[in-house]
TrEMBL record:
The keyword Secreted does not apply. GO terms for biological process: spermidine biosynthetic process. It comes from Desulfitobacterium metallireducens DSM 15288. The lineage of its organism: Bacteria, Bacillati, Bacillota, Clostridia, Eubacteriales. Gene3D superfamilies: Spermidine synthase, tetramerisation domain, Vaccinia Virus protein VP39. This is Polyamine aminopropyltransferase. The active site is at residue 155. CDD domains: AdoMet_MTases.
Length: 284
């Protein structure tokens, strides 16, 4: 008998991975959590039937969500991470000795517990002494913060269920307020390819643009996400990731990365015409 994990990417498109062994199934207060083992992608975990992280391609997402802002402003010391329960974003951040403090706000403790057990590859740095874990809603957490962080990373689920609030105007406005005067906001920005995802990414772009003077979008190829073409948002009060990137400083750190390099950094902001058009439409 063959066992396959199948995810519905649109009404007419499905994506499947052959499963060697189901490892865990649980229902938290917020969502259903599943972990599987597969030959092609190693262990992978899903929330409400949507792919979150696989051992094989997580490096692409985590490199791009962390190293792009860190190479733009090497002086970042105080970071807020929202979502990110698998720990991959925190793992990459803790590689910078210059970072002094990381608050990570994940709504669902069960995600962290499950990832500690089945995805130690990403969860391995959650006990770093600079990391402070809060199990609460990121939307509520930022409401009370002002002029506090150099960088906010929103590593959320899609804009429905518990993640919905992390794509609202209220949330982006509060992130603006929670950032210092040279602060940067990076978020997972959905995909431009299939219509439903493209609508979400346009909405997010439009809302972020209402608050931040610098507002760019960059891309990466993530094989297990819908269409494989994924976007990240870079919003900032001061720094432009293309003109302020400090290549020399970042390269002198000697960090070994499997995806990110300073050429990819610059190239990732070069967008296909159809994506530029979607963003222009959203910005009007
Ligand atoms: N890399 C993944 C992706 O884009 O598919 C996202 C990974 S991470 C596991 C997303 C996390 O965001 C989940 O663990 C989820 O519980 C958390 N999350 C969703 N809504 C949240 C909220 N309002 N506040 C804090 N965390 C939230």
């Amino acid at each position: 008998m063959e066992l396959w994990y199948t995810e519905q990417h649109t009404d007419n498109v499905r994506f499947s991975i052959k499963v060697d062994k189901p490892l865990y199934t649980g229902q938290s207060e917020f969502q259903r959590i599943d972990v599987f083992n597969s030959k092609e992608f190693g262990n992978f975990f899903t929330l409400d039937g949507l792919m979150m992280v696989t051992q094989k391609d997580e490096f692409i997402y985590h490199d791009m969500i962390v190293h792009v802002p860190m190479a733009t402003n090497p002086k970042i010391k105080n970071v807020l991470v929202i979502g990110a329960g698998d720990g991959g974003t925190v793992r990459e951040l803790t590689r910078y000795a210059t970072i002094e403090h990381i608050d990570m706000v994940e709504i669902d403790k069960m995600v962290v517990d499950v990832c500690r057990e089945y995805l130690p590859q990403t969860a391995c740095k959650l006990d770093d002494p600079r990391v402070h874990l809060y199990f609460e809603d990121g939307l509520k957490f930022v409401r009370t913060k002002e002029n506090t962080y150099d960088l906010i990373i929103v590593d959320s689920t899609d804009p429905f269920g518990p993640g919905e609030g992390l794509f609202t105007k209220e949330f982006y406005g509060n992130c603006y307020k929670a950032l210092k005067e040279d602060g940067i906001l990076v978020n997972q920005h959905e995909s431009p390819y299939y219509d439903e995802y493209a609508k979400s990414m346009q909405r997010a772009h439009k809302r972020i643009k209402e608050f931040f003077p610098i507002c760019r979008v960059y891309q990466a190829h993530i094989p297990t996400y819908p269409s494989g073409h994924w976007l990240f948002g870079f919003a900032s009060k001061k720094y432009d990731p293309l003109t302020d990137i400090d290549e020399k400083a970042w390269n002198s750190l000697g960090l070994k990365t499997k995806y990110y390099n300073t050429d990819i950094h610059k190239g990732s902001f070069a967008l296909p015409n159809y994506v530029k058009e979607l963003l222009a439409e959203a910005g009007e």
